TrEMBL record:
This is Putative glutathione S-transferase. The keyword Transferase applies. GO terms for molecular function: glutathione transferase activity. The active site is at 42 (nucleophile), 173 (proton donor/acceptor). Keywords: Transferase.
Length: 334
């Protein structure tokens, strides 16, 4: 929503029901009971996809992939035969929201976790979902799953996540949806000031917090991956492209080439969503043909900084065949 000042303000009132080991909200962790609904286009949903992959939860938490575009009535399952999710049997994600909250009036967002037996939404609290996958779903993690939210680093991770969300993750939206020059420029400068801060921080260390991949890296990556394809032009975040910021560009390529990151990133869906759905920003709906993706596979040199991507853990195996990003949507070799 946009305030009278022209500033974009994100509604952060989500369904905060949690799926926990002890089931204190009525939803205990249980293999096969829940389905994660995502769109590959959405950066918040992409976070959940990466965490699920890294932790090896594919067999315990199934995943529904909505199409890249939607209308005012919510995300649709137009990628599936007959336009229905094969597990939930619904055409639109809003059916799961209304099954639990018949008078639900807020946005129908992804990621969302739906209880399969009832077809009801459990939560769409993207901020908490990934943390709970790390901490509450431990019993179902794969052998060798990394610690993405280690206890000793949580305070620092939380501190980094807070400023990155404010100025970068949400900052690009604050710039893109601003309706006054002042609001846009405030968001623009806050964004690039934070990107400069991140560049300095990452110039001497491979990852944002500690020497392994953590929740902080995942949250930053999904915004940076969308920067040149979308935010630089579509949202007027154009002081520089990601590919013109040497430290952040190498850092993002390092993560992209790490199992779990690039293999969940669909550049075609990303561009289709932003340019086709946001007609207030792009009235024609024309989707740009570029940028060229080949350089995402260029050597990054970040391993010279040391670090252990998965700590004492191991890389995840390749994604299941039915979850692979189409080869024509990614520079990665399928």
């Amino acid at each position: 929503m946009t305030a009278d000042t022209g500033e974009f303000t994100r509604d952060m009132n989500y369904v905060t029901t949690r799926i926990t080991e002890d089931g204190r909200d009525g939803y205990p962790v249980q293999s096969g009971r829940y389905r994660l609904v995502v769109s590959r286009a959405c950066p918040w949903a992409n976070r959940a996809m990466i965490v699920r992959r890294l932790l090896g939860l594919e067999g315990a938490l199934s995943m529904a992939i909505a199409g890249p575009t939607h209308d005012e009535r919510s995300w649709t399952f137009d990628l599936d035969p007959g336009g229905r999710d094969p597990v939930l049997g619904i055409e639109r994600l809003r059916e799961a929201y209304f099954a639990r909250f018949p008078d639900y009036e807020k946005g129908i967002t992804v990621p969302a976790i739906v209880e399969v037996p009832t077809g009801q939404l459990v939560t769409n609290d993207f901020n908490q979902i990934t943390i709970d996958l790390s901490l509450e779903w431990r019993a179902l993690h794969r052998e060798g799953a990394p610690e993405l939210y280690p206890e000793a680093l949580r305070a620092e991770i939380d501190e980094v996540n807070e400023v990155v969300f404010r100025d970068v993750n949400n900052g690009v939206y604050r710039a893109g949806f601003a309706t006054t020059q002042q609001a846009y420029e405030q968001a623009y400068h806050a964004l690039f000031d934070r990107l400069d801060w991140l560049s300095e921080r990452l110039s001497g260390q491979r990852y944002l917090v500690g020497d392994t991949i953590t929740e902080a890296d995942i949250r930053l990556f999904t915004t940076l991956a969308r920067f040149d394809p979308v935010y630089h032009g579509h949202y007027k975040c154009n002081r520089a492209k990601l590919s013109e910021m040497p430290v952040l560009w190498a850092y993002t390529r390092d993560l992209f080439q790490t199992p779990g990151f690039g293999d969940t990133t669909d550049f075609v869906h990303i561009k289709q969503h932003y340019y086709e759905v946001h007609r207030d920003v792009n009235p024609t709906g024309v989707v740009p043909a570029g940028p060229d993706l080949a350089n995402w596979l260029a050597p990054h040199g970040r391993d010279a900084l040391g670090g252990r991507p998965f700590g004492t853990g191991t890389p995840p195996p390749p994604p299941p065949a039915d979850e692979r990003v189409p080869a024509e949507h990614t520079p990665l070799r399928s």
